[in-house]
Design a protein that fits this description.
It is built from 4 helices and 2 strands. By secondary structure, the protein is mostly helical. The chain is flat.
C-alpha cells in the first residue's frame, strides 16, 4: 500500500471519528435530544478534507488530476446519498455507539497502517 493511501485512510478515519463525536456531543449532551442527526453534506466533507490533507506537489497533468479528484471527493458522496433519497441520517444512542466503535476501529487500523508503512 502506498504511503499516500495510508495517510488518506489515517486522516479520513480521524476526521470521521472527531466529527461524529462532535455531533453526538451537541445532539445528546448539549441539546438533550434522543437522536443524532447527520446531514447529507457531511459525507462530501468527510471524504474531501482528508484528500486535501494528503495532496501531492505534482505539476502539469498531475495537478489537474488532483483538482479533478478533489472535486469528485466532495461532489460524488453527497450526490450518491441524494440519489438514494437520503436527506439525513438519524441515529439513536445504540446505533450511534456502534458507529463510533467502528470508527474507533478504523482509527486504530489507520494508525497501524501508517506505522507499518513507515517501518518499510
Amino acid at each position: 500500500m502506498d504511503n499516500r493511501y495510508a495517510n488518506y485512510f489515517f486522516h479520513f478515519s480521524h476526521l470521521l471519528l472527531m466529527t461524529l463525536l462532535l455531533v453526538g456531543l451537541v445532539d445528546f449532551v448539549i441539546e438533550g435530544e434522543a437522536v443524532a442527526t447527520i446531514n447529507k453534506g457531511y459525507f462530501g466533507v468527510a471524504f474531501g478534507l482528508p484528500y486535501m490533507a494528503v495532496r501531492t506537489a505534482s505539476k502539469g497533468w498531475g495537478k489537474i488530476r488532483h483538482v479533478a479528484l478533489l472535486f469528485l471527493f466532495f461532489y460524488v458522496p453527497s450526490k450518491l446519498v441524494t440519489l438514494f433519497g437520503i436527506q439525513e441520517v438519524v441515529l439513536a444512542i445504540g446505533p450511534y455507539s456502534v458507529v463510533l466503535f467502528v470508527c474507533a476501529l478504523m482509527v486504530l487500523t489507520g494508525s497501524y497502517l501508517k506505522k507499518a508503512i513507515k517501518k518499510n
